[in-house]
Predict the 3D structure of the following.
Amino acid sequence: MIKFWKILYNVVVIPAMVIFFRTFSVFNKKIERGIKDRKKLFENLIISLADIDKSKKIIWFHSSSMGEFEQAKPIIKKLKLETDVNIAITFFSPSGYRNSLKYPYADIINYIPLDTPRLAKRFLSLLNPKLAVFMRYDIWPNFMWELNRRNIPSLLVDATMNKNSKRKLPGIKSFHKCLFGKVTRILTVSEEDKIQFLDFRIPDKNIESVGDTRFDRVYQKSIQAKERKLFDESVLNGKKIFVFGSSWEADEEVVFPAFTKLAEKDKSVVMIIAPHEPTELHLEKLEHYFAKTFKTIRFSDIRNYKDERIIIVDSIGILLTLYYYAHVAFVGGSFKQGIHNVLEPSVYGIPVMFGPKHSNSQEAVELVKLGGAVSVKDRRGAYKYLRTFFSNEDKRKFAGGIAYNFVNSNIGATDKILKHIYKYI
């Protein structure tokens, strides 16, 4: 059966993929950037290989993009500090690649080539890794088959599988059975995910539930964040802070009216808004919205703070640290297409709020069940919970404690994954 899928994949899927990327590169700058950057992929790889100590084994980590790479970071850092190996990291997306070029724990940083048999063979012949680690879901058939042919072990880490996944559709399921069957070990984030992978008739001994490194990563980052001083103590002293993180306009249409109503009754409440995309146009829209009700100030001008009720964040990369100052947080994306990271505010022991579109996050679903987070459907619901958390300190601390314990009790996946890695190196 695997021969059939190899032929179909390489004769039909790969050519279709090439046509798709070349066509849409005209309209999509991200795709265009990825194609352009890959022109020197092998040249850059050869240069990088010339600069490393060839007596050391190479461990290859692949992530689709920046989000998946964040999950790999706790593993890579500890592996690099505890062993004498070379670390190679690759990405599919330009955003992951370009944002990681200065990552200190990697010896080689590159793109993964297009998944053709020829390019997979060339890449693996040059890199010659001792072990391949794929993060979450981004495994490519020809690479997996070639790794298997060369007897190079592979791990699929932080693996998830929804019971309604399209990978289980008739026909497609058979293809993925052939693909997952070539992975040496599949390490899932939960027992439920393990059960769903077993549905592909993979031997039970090849799958293990070890947890999710996102908990480890967010915990590590929270410790570092506490050492950063984004605000002078006098700025937020005596105030109740509501951080609205990764906001989209659809989220803002619900949250802003609710906060306005709350702030009119509670003069100590301050909202920090961190837009998902802090473009100048978006920032100006935010300022215009509050022009008649509250004074606003941009974070870049925070040194001139004079008790403004709205602080608008006009930079990126500081959201996790902003949550440190919050008494309550609202995580955006949940009124648009899917919620953003709910672990980032939870790690600080504060109640988390979000909208109805959060089924893409197992953590969000679980937090609601436990009582550490609430899901709101409209402005009325948003105001109800904002009012509750900011007027009832006992309820706020109780929900926040649940959120903190949820993160803290799930720390430790990194060490479990490293035990598997050490078996092969």
Remarks:
- Residues 34-212+412-424 form a domain with the Rossmann fold fold (CATH 3.40.50.11720).
- The radius of gyration is 23 Å.
